């Protein structure tokens, strides 16, 4: 049913949130209509091509986000998206994003961090973040394959000396040896790609304690 | 460190990272002025990395001349802040063009058919637009050109 | 004609250290009056392609001090023209232009200040933050004859950077220099700093 366009104010803050190429369009309800049963319709556009395209799963939806990852997955391209609000027979004008360049703008998520310890060392194994994929059956692609210059900034906090230091690495395994026994160390890792500034997302801080020094433990017995 | 551009037998280094961060400061406001979203000047089919290495130097040389002669020169910045940022980009691309001229002088920047064909396509996309709209669009597409350089 | 009455600033020069560029000039003195100055610049591009265009500097259009931080204006590795004029109310002086164009590749690069510390048996270095232009080449070795010198590229950051695991009882030395991508130049090395690791040397 065609609606009367422009009687409703537009959705606001229409923007792409992109992490590891998972590109979610999100927006806020129109001013003054929070809590009202509003529905939304989304369209997207490939810069340089000819027409706006529908996203069928985001037609007349009540949520305020829409996953456009599949539609915006070509690294070469740049995109726009727009959303309009509908309430009864009234609808808003379209609210549009700026030009979105996923390859340059996507946030690189943190790696998976696995820590193992012994008395005086901590081994850190990093697994590169995974690119968004269309379906679980699809084979995983690491963000490293897309950004060959992906690096990691590893920071380690010694809770006993209250000192933190960092190391920038490109490989996925590193060992910090000669640590203090029976000491809690906390590790935090951030992925980054040299180039245009991007938002970053550090990993969860993980803490692990080095084991008791066995020699002193034996003497105590 | 610096980015090395392999353009056939012409090899130059440039502070691409600095140029890209300079552009990212004005990207949103410049692109917001480009309302003709169904035309793209720098298209995948004319990309630098999709061009045979021997012709890349010449193609880039032509593209930079387009930017220096017709884009930056005719761009009307909305304020001094944007003006300074655009000046930084223009002067940075000028240094690349000067390096390409050295390659040209050393006969390592040949212009083959592919370079000529691709540049003429780019030029026709540019000239199909009203002049000021073309200038704004070309400036807004610097992230595409810089990505081509990144992949060259 | 008001423009000619006020003398133009003289003795323009640029002081540039570690990619911080300051334009200075001799102040124009008019007793009991406050003089303002305006600074403008032109990169090589503007000179070649739009020579009538001058760009007002970021921080000094106008300013009362006889100097101007032009670091945010000089942003490409080309030669820049700079000019200053004085104003007093409606009176303006003629422009005074820097005699020799300035290029940031002539900046003086000083060895970086650094702080060598240890956390347990981990050698750490903290380097002064000189801004986004700078990378650091850090060289470190064990203080003994024939010791191998290791080199690590360190980007500016808030935290100390881990260099090496060290052995108790041994001594280690570190020196660093800066590298500026934009101009492809590096500073001299800092004086080496050596630290002794506590504890007894491990039995061989």
Automatic annotation (TrEMBL), chain B:
Pfam families attached to this UniProt entry: IL10 (PF00726)
Domain of life: Eukaryota
Function: Immune regulatory cytokine.
UniProt protein name: Interleukin family protein
Sorted UniProt keywords: Cytokine, Secreted, Signal
Family stated for the protein in its record: Belongs to the IL-10 family.
Main location: secreted
Organism of origin: Odocoileus virginianus (White-tailed deer)
Annotated compartments: Secreted
